[in-house]
């Protein structure tokens, strides 16, 4: 009996442990993404020994921004000159320390610059050699060169892109060919092509490349009617355009969506942010807080872990008219699991005036900045940020610490992974002055139009017969009629009429008189008279 009880308790504890293991919240972010990353390094004789050491140190610094391992990022290294040489097979080293040591031990080849051969070698022999149990989420190549290639790079780059390899091109020095780098890299060139003045200055673009690699690792490409971008269109992914009521937006011909308390906008974080958040980003929201919502404290957007901790939140405090940004804190911040900054500058308070506004929150390393209607409001310091947990939920427009949806109107809610999008994103949705905005904008509700009259349209088809109308009113009496002669049925004003009154009296003791009024019209028409005169004149002439 004791043996059975012991077995039962053991199985119970094992099941509980397995259950706890299965329900551990997953952390995700740039450093933890499953990437296959291959460096294609120019080892030609144009690099001096000191420059080659600087190039390797630069690769080490980029590598340290990723977690190296079989489940995360695996790195390979190809050095090329006359011919390519595999320095580090993809996935050979499964720790940052081992990988850094291998990069630093790489010797300089020397020779000519055959960049095309280096790209082709990586595509055909390195990317396919990974021993992952699951396919990598992203395949990324970084080509580092300081001069014009002596072979064709276009075909090699096209072959790599056809196999879904994302190509970055980094040019160093003044001997590089910009058009060649652009033909190597993915589009747009502003994202995938980077330049450094020399190898001593290559460290200046380390953070920029690390951010671009992070964007490519974490953020999906979104296609819009304007320009594609890497990031998240939360208006669509959170199904606001499906669940909410469509209404007139901030300017004419712009749609918005009205939320109410009966609606719920909650999704699993994994379905919206499957790889977490990038290190730097800009969040853009166009909204209107109508009364009484403008006096409520609400989380416009919040990401919550399984145990209820906020991983990221944008809070609008209508009580004191402030904006609060919250994000997950790195372990180095005195044991804190989250950190918040408050924007309560006078400029941000207009957000609560019940009119349309555009709110931008720009997050960069060490600082976060707020903008309202395209104008910078305030900048605050931000501590070190860590990756978020993605097995919880993400929500829109909820009261703080509650599951109640706050009524408001949303026109845009996007998270751009490229922080430089902050300068490109105008406030043209708000009827404010901006030289970059179209001149024909009209605020919502304005219907005025100074338009020329168009040409008259063509006649339409005949309509059907109408209903019989009502009987009209009786007209006024007509003028007295003229007497009718029995001899002449027609006369005019030139006819002559003679009227005679006749009386007959009969006297037998009493006289009775009967008078009869008789009109005899002797009509002589003017035509007859004229003929008569004409004959008389003829006679006179003849005599």
Q: Report the helical percentage.
A: 10-25%
> How much is the radius of gyration in Å?
46 Å
Number of helices: 13
**CATH architecture tag of the largest domain:** Sandwich
Q: Estimate the strand proportion.
A: 25-35%
Helix and strand content put the structural class at alpha+beta
The level-1 CATH class of the largest domain: Mainly Beta
Which word captures the global form? elongated
Largest sheet: 9 strands, antiparallel
Structural domains: how many: 2
Uncertain residue ranges: 16-22, 484-495, 517-524
Short précis:
The chain is built from 13 helices and 25 strands. The protein is of the alpha+beta class and 543 residues long. Residues 36-209 form the VWFA domain.
Give the helix/strand layout:
Elements: H1 2-22, E1 27-28, E2 35-42, H2 49-63, E3 74-80, E4 84-88, H3 96-104, H4 115-126, E5 138-145, H5 154-162, E6 165-172, H6 178-184, H7 189-192, E7 193-196, H8 206-218, E8 221-222, E9 229-233, H9 234-237, H10 240-243, E10 245-248, E11 255-259, E12 266-268, H11 269-272, E13 281-288, E14 297-304, E15 310-317, E16 322-328, E17 338-343, E18 356-364, E19 367-372, E20 375-381, E21 388-389, E22 393-399, E23 408-416, H12 421-424, E24 498-508, E25 510-520, H13 526-542
Parallel strand pairs: 2-3, 2-5, 5-6, 6-7
Antiparallel strand pairs: 1-21, 3-4, 8-9, 9-23, 10-11, 11-23, 12-22, 13-18, 13-23, 14-15, 14-22, 15-16, 16-17, 18-19, 19-20, 24-25
Family: Belongs to the fibril-associated collagens with interrupted helices (FACIT) family.
Signal peptide: 1-19
Region (Disordered): 460-485
